[in-house]
Structures are given as C-alpha cells and as structure tokens.
Amino acid sequence: MNLSMKWLKDYIDRDFEPKKFCYDLTMTGSKVEGYEAEGSEIKNVVVGKILSVTPHENSDHLVVCQVDVGKGEPIQIVTGASNVNVGDVVPVALDNSYLPGGVHIKKGKLRGVESNGMLCSLGELGLTKHDFPYAIEDGIFIIKEDCEIGEDIHSAIGLDDVSVEFEITSNRPDCLSVIGLAREAAATYGIDFKEPSSKYTGVREDIDKKLNVVIENGKLCRRYIGGYVKNVKIAPSPRWLRERLRASGVRPINNLVDITNYVMLEYGQPMHAFDARFIKGNEIHVRNARSGETITTLDGTVRELSPEMLVIADTEKPVAVAGVMGGEYSGIMDDTVDVIFESASFDGASVRRTAKKLGMRTDSSARFEKGLDPHLCEPAILRAFELVELLGCGEVADTRIDRFPSPTEKKPVPFDPDWINRFLGTNIPRADMEKYLRAIGFTVNGGEVIAPYYRIDIECKADIAEEVARFYGYNNIVGTELKGVANAKLTPAQKLQRQTESACIAMGLSGIETFSFISPKFYDKINLPKDSKLRKSVTILNPLGEDTSVMRTTVLPSMCEVLARNYNLRNPAAALFELGNEYLPSENEGDLPAEPQRLSVGVYGDGIDFFGIKGIVERIFAAIGLEGIEYEPAGPGCGFDEAVMFHPGRVAAASLDGKPLAILGEVHPSVLENYGIGVRAYCAKINISEILDIAIPEKQYKPLPKYPAATRDISLVCDDEMPVARLEKLIKTAVGNFLESINLFDVYKGEQIAAGKKSVAFSIIMRSKDGTLTDEQAEAAMRRVRKSLQDENVEVRG
Amino acid sequence: MKESLERIELLAKSELERIRDSKELEALRIKFLGKKGELTAIMKSMATLSAEERPAIGQLANRVRADIEEAITSRAEELKAAAAEQRFKDERLDVTLPGKAPKLGRLHPLDAVMHEIEDIFIGMGFDIASGPEVEYDYYNFEALNLPPDHPARDTQDTFYISDKVLLRTQTSPVQIRVMEQKKPPIRIVAPGRVYRSDAVDATHSPLFHQIEGLVVDKGITMGDLVGTLDMLMKRLYGEECRIRLRPHHFPFTEPSAEVDMVCFNCGGKGCSMCKGEGYVELLGSGMVHPKVLEKCGIDPEVYSGFAFGLGLERLVMRKYGITDLRLLYENDLRFLGQF
After folding, report:
1. ipTM (interface predicted TM)
2. Position B263 confidence tier, pLDDT thresholds 50, 70, 90
3. Range of the domain at B11
4. Disruptive mutation site among B196, B336, B338, B339 for chain A (greatest number of A CBs within 10 Å)
5. pTM summary value
6. Distance (Å, rounded) from C-alpha B194 to C-alpha B192?
7. Enclosing domain of residue A362
8. What is the rounded CA–CA span in Å between residue B171 and residue B313?
9. Are residues A74 and A88 in the same domain?
C-alpha cells in the first residue's frame, strides 16, 4: 500500500518529516518499507516561457529559443523539438540540472550555437501521458497548469508528493486505505482525526425502475449496493486526483474509472463501474458460475469459470468475477452514458480461491480476501457519488439499491485493565488504555469494548491487549526473567547426536548439510534396482523442479553428490559426515512417514582405503559405547538396499545381535562413474535412530590387573576365503576365560604360501585375575586353540 | 710415605685435567681409588709405620682420598654438562616447521550455531523438542489458527504431499505437538528444518532451519518474552546487543511482535547493511493466542505463554559475514574448513 502524504493531509492536519513518520508508524504496527519523494531525482528544473523561436544557422532540424526563466535576462536554449511556439510554457532544465536516471544537464554548444539548458518532454521528467493527458509524448511538455515563470517544476506540476510504502499484515485490510492509515497515524501521535463523511445532492430517480439486484448466494455475498449515475461525461480526471492516484501507484484512466480506484484507495472498499447498456435485462444476479461458463475479463483474456466461483451476471451471462475483475464489455468506454456503481461485500475465502484458480490477483481481490465488513459498502459508494458531483461528470440517482439480508453487529469484548496489565507485565492506567482504544475508533463501555466495524480482527481479550500495547509502545514493556524452576537437559537422542558429531570431528570429518529432497534419478545413480523399496519415496505434489521432487529414502546419494562436487572443485581429499534424516513412507495410507536419523560418512583422497572407512565406523561405535558389533560381507538380505552401490568385494554390513546398524565400503566403480568421481571413494551409513533402542551399559570401572599376562603368538595358514573374524572367534572360544585380547599382527599372501591360501599371525594375551598363569595353563589353552583351528582345516605353523 | 701421598695427589689432579669422557674418568678412579689402586696400596702399607707416625699419615691419606674423590665428582659433573650441551646443539630443531597432528574435522556452521543456541536455552531451562518435517496441515496451519483459505497462508509458499500432508513451513507445529502431550509448565525450544517453495538464490532456499521457542505457565507475561529474547541475544552477540520489538501479525500469537536488533555495522544510524533502517530483522514472536491454547486443551484463563521463531541461516550469515546463503548447502570444503 502506497500512501500519498498529500492525501493523508485530508484527514490529519499536520505536516510530517517523512523519515520520522515512517519510524513512528512502524513502531505502532504499520510497517513502512520505505518512502519516496516524487521527482526526487529532478533538480534545478524550472518553468520557462518561450519568447522567440529562430532557425539554427547550421542545422535544419534544430531551433534556437530565447526563454524567460524568471531571472530577468532570458536564456538561450537550442532544441530539436518541433512543437515549441512563442508563448508556450515549458519545463526548462537549467545549466547544472538533474533529471531522472541520473541525467546531468550542463550548458554547451550545439552545432556551434550556445545552449544554456534543455527543454524537457514528459518522459524526460519521468512522467507519462496518463499524468498529463493533454500533453504529447514525443515532444516538449507544453505546460497548461496554473503556475509562475521561474517556479520550481515540482510545485508547478504537482510533482511534490511523498509516497510511503506500507507492508500491511493480512489481519488489517482496513489499513489498505488512506483513511485507515490516517486513523493509525492520528492515534500514533495522539492528534485529531477528521472522520470522513460524504454528501451528495443527486437527481430524482426511482432506482427500482432502472435496476434490480438479486443476491442468489447470501453466504458468499453479504451485501450488494447498486448506484446509478446518468449522462456521464467521460474525460480525464482533474490534476489533483490524477496526482494522488499516481502517488499511490495507480494509473489514471478516466474520471469514472478513476473514481472507483480513488474510493478503493481512500476507503479500502473495492468498487466496480458497469456500463448500464451491457447489463441485459437491467438485472444483476450475484450467483455461482454455471458449468462451462466463460468470461472475457477486462484484460482481454477468456477465463473458464467453475461452479464454486461467484460471479456478477445479468440475465444472460456473467459480467464480472465477483471481487476479482470485471468483464470486457462491462467497463466504462468513451461513449458510455449511464453507469452502475457496485459496492459489495464478498466472502474472503471464496474470492481468494477464485483469484488463485484463475491466476489473477488484483488490488480488489487482495482486499476482499482478507475479509471486509459489509458496513464499509455504504460510506464508499456515498464517497463515489460525492466525487461524481465534485468532478461534474454525471447525474447521481438519489435512490440506490441496497441488498443486505442479514446485518450483524459487532460483539463486545471484555475490557479488563487489570488482566491486560498482568498479561503484558505492565502497569498502564485504565484511562490511558481507554484513550488508546478510543483513538482507533473503539467504544469503551465499562467492562466492555466494541470494536468499530472495519476492525475484523478483534475477537478476544488478547486482541484488546495488543491494541493497548501498540500505543503504549512495545519497547516500554520492561523485560523480566522467567520465574520458576529452570531444569533442562539433553534427551538421550540429542546426547547420541552430539557424541556422534564429536567422534566424527575428532577423526577429521567435517559436517555437511544437504537437502532432504532429491531427484528420483539419484536412485539410478546409486544403481538401486527398479524394484527396491527405497524407490518408494514421499513425493512432493508441487516441487520447484524434478531435482528436488522426492524426499530421500537414503542419505547416501546426497553424500556422493557432495563428494563429487568437492572432487570437481579439485579439493584433493575430502572427509565428510552428515547427520540427516531419511523419509520412509508409511504402509498405512494417510500416516506420516517415518523420519529415522542417519549418519552418512564419505571420504576420498590419499591414504584412505576400505579399512579407513571401517576404522571410522568402528571408532564411532566405540565412542557411542557399543560393543560386540559384527561385520560381514554385505549382500542381499543384509538390511541395506544400498549394498548395490558398493564394490561387491569391499562392502560390509555391521550388526549387533542380528540387528543391522551400518553399511560401509568402497563405492562401486560404476557409481563413481555416474557421479564423475575419478578416484576411489568410500562411504558409510549408520542407523542412528536404531541405536537409541539399544541399551548401552553405563561405563563401569574394572580393577586394573594384579597378575602378569601370558602372551603366546600363533602363526597359521588357511584358505584365503576364511574370514579373519572367524579365526578370532575360534581362538576366543578355545582359550576361554583367560583370554584378555587377540591381536592380529600379520596377514600375508604370496611367496612360500600356496595359491589360494594366506598366512595369518595372532598374538594371544591371557591373564587370570586370581593369580599368575602357569606355563601349564597357558599351554593347555594353546593346545585347545590348535586343536580347534585344525578341526577347521587350518594349518598351525607355530 | 708422606711424599708418596702428595705425589699421588698431584698426579691424580693433573691426569684429571686431561680426562675427556666418563669412561676415562672411571679408569682414573679405579687407578687411584680402586681396590688395587695406588692409594689403597699405600693405605695397606700403613701397618709398617710406627704408632707415632700413623695418625698423621692416616689423616693425610684420608684427606688425599677425599680431595681426589671430590675432584673426580666435580670433573664428572663438568663432563655431564658438556655432554648435555653438545646433545642439545646436535638435536636442535627448526621450531618454525609446521606441527604434525591428525586432522580435526569441523561442525557445519549451521550446526555449530544451532548447538550454541541450544546450549544457551538449556542454560535457561528450556528442553529441546522436535517434531516431524513431513507434517499434517492440521499441525502446520489449522491448529495454529490458520484455517484453510486464511490469507496469511500466502506468505508461506507450501510444498504439499497430499491434501492433508505437507512439508512443514515453520517449526511452530512442534508447539502444538508439545502442548498436546505435556501440560504446563512448558519451556521448550524446537530446532529443525523447514521448507518453503522459494527458488534458490543468495538469500532464499527451499529448505532452511528455524528454532521455535515456547513457554506456557501460569502468569507468563509479555515482559517475560522481552526479557527472554533480550537475554538470548545478549548471550549470542554480547552484552552490548540491543533489540527492539514492533507490532506485527501472526495468526497464532496475540499480541505479536517482530524483533529487530540494532545494526552491528552502524549501531543504529542506518547504513547499507541495514538498508538505512538502523535495525535488522531477527525473529517473530508473541503471546500464544488463546485459541491455540484452547485447541491444545490448555485453559487460557489459567495459563498464558509466549512463543518465538528465529531463522538460523540469517543468524549464521550475520555471525560469520556470509553474504550468499547457497554456500551453506554447497558443502565446498574450502568453505567448511573456515569455521
């Protein structure tokens, strides 16, 4: 909403310094986005009068003018315009003047003849023909205004308004008007506000003979006032009216149309003017559109209507989409004779849906959709009548049609100053509260207040508290500390997240943040089979684009994407992690998806291999306090459909008591190719949410060993296929209670070892808590170990 | 015998002068003081002396022994000091060479600041709550006093999953979920991802983070809201940080307030950073609307509360001077490594 400060003066008798005005209004709740002084770019341009026009000695299309600029001696200006004659009054940009767009005018010579400035066109002043309909666009602006020679151009042509841009919240459609903002301004400064009231004389006319109005849907149209204006004279509006429209950002068109716009800007009530010739049957029906009906709107577009839309129709066809836009042939034309003014109240939600569906939000629909009170219709149409008579552009019928089937009164709201003070934490005297409320049109009646009709947002005590607080000043409310017991701590889930993050950071991994929505093509990029359940994603109905159209069911493609980006940015190595959610659709229609949290890790660069990523995963489990994790080659049935994105020989699934917790490995060469990553990369995913269900034992101190350990090394040769974990398990079982740890210290394949075999060496540490282990005890254990290994066809070499 | 003793002493001392390492020193000690050493030999022959001579010679012998021992000890110390000196010289390093350490990772700046804010609130007695990102329209809008076709829905371009399910446009639905499950006193913050259908540019992203706050108890006032936000900002930005509240409209709070912070750059005078306003927008807040309390089964006649929601990205960008929001989601290591 752009407010003309000149217009504002109609209702408040005070001049404001714009910057301060903007600040003050913002602080009482009418947020100002900024302000603009009209013609602020124009400097040193005055009104001049052409004294003589003579040919230019060196040019056929230039002329030399002597111009009186009110400074005694006339000045000489060369111009190329052909519409200048002696006696014309014109805008003159003097030497060292400025025009819109940063144009700087200085004196100089044009083809050898001195020129001390420039005569200006409308365009050069930043204006159009709409601002001065009598002027031409391709020539000098010949001023036909009441002004003085030498007068500054701003005041001479009314380019001296200040336009303030307000950002009005959706609960205050009353402030989408000059009157509404004036009322707020008056209350802000505690000064008088001139209540508007309109008077018109009218001509004797029985409206019922001219027009009938039928509201067929009283729910969507609560009031419809039809007024009649005869014998209109279509012409441009007077300058003051055009200026105000311009300062409000509305283009002047002609007097009748301008009046409807003027009233909308001033009162906040959208109006419409119909050419009576095109209302068939002289009847207006406010009804729902019929199936298949269309309308060509004022902008020349054919629109398909649907039955939930409200239209204004004559006996044959829709002539306007109610509250949104008029039909093509219903508008005012140069030969219009009689005009029907509409001032009506339409249901906000319905207007909003209709405007949205038709894809045309207008100044009118933007006001209706916020909810306008039906009581506003009458003052608005009265103002329109007044303006018609003021402009002398028609004869107003002295009767009008007013269909208002069920008027409602505002309900009183309790007024409890003590409660308000307790609620705000203030100590505002009752009298001050009443003063604030009265200033914005509220009626205070003992323990009750009644809001004025235009305040659609007032329903409860808290609303009254806000009104009081606004004018008391939010910043006069003194901050207090919360009372009561402050007792808060991280939940187990939050603790787990922080532990995980700390572990990642300690290992040199950096945190990333990726979008939760991805392209369905990401599933192809990680080689997911067509029938993978991970392809069933939560899908966005109205995505920004295909690349952000589904909620990810796996975090790993996002990680690959970031690895690829860093690879392409030539970052030589990357070590990244993300704690992010997956979104897994529910089996039950209508239920929300599960949003389990995952840790994804991605690394590439020198010195990193499969055991690097595995080490990271092991450390994270250790940091969390999980013991007994088992790693197995990951394949179908491992609990992770993403297994296919890994090198089949270098991928492991980690589980605890059969519960899958992580997958990790080297990224499959074809996936690397899909992402354009030219080096080996490694990824892991850990199911963080599932870990929360596992009881992690609290840490307990174990006594330090009192007795020495017995260490035995064992070297063996086995099939290459034999997992080391299996060997360790055999040793563990065989040693029994004395086992303290098994440390793998060598794995060898090659010379001296038969093909298909490998040599493995462990150091076995045994200890008893009851006494020093004897050689006998250690040897007995080692015999059991050898036996158990040999049973599995493992050759023990020593 | 007296001459022999004096000769031995002189000899020992002159030989000591020539000793260069601890091995030679030990040889010397054995030569003079050892069991088969020269002094021992003389001591043994003392038995041949007369009873009158014995005390004087014995005394002299003891003194000579003590002198030699002392000389050896002091020589030993000299040698040790010299050796240490030499070692330090040999082992001297260029301490300006870079250190060696395992690489340290870093939290993403969004998470780092999020944790900072969470910790501030935990210190103020706020628990951390969470809710789903794929949310029912009911929680995201309706229960927050935004019925279907409410014009304020326009300000939040929404991604829909179905008629009834959407990607939450704000963290405010967590307010409702918390109030449905827990009776006052309530004191929570709810950080998380939110979604709006805004194309990516330097200041917009279809996904961003908010932190919601909610306090409900008997006797909660708007002054409590002011005090809480003031404390948050002072802890986050320092004691000199000043905020201002101005009236605004949110359907789920009444009164509602936008909270601005005095511009860091110009201190409130107005500059290019704050677009001449002297203030920068921080967050939205207000007293919980009675209808919202009622919907959650909390009696607004008994309880009152306040709520606020702040955007994390804006805070992070301001804190680190980041001018392009896209950097936060590009995850370029050259960017991530700076925090």
Report:
1. 0.86
2. confident
3. 2-90
4. B336
5. 0.85
6. 7
7. 207-403
8. 14
9. yes
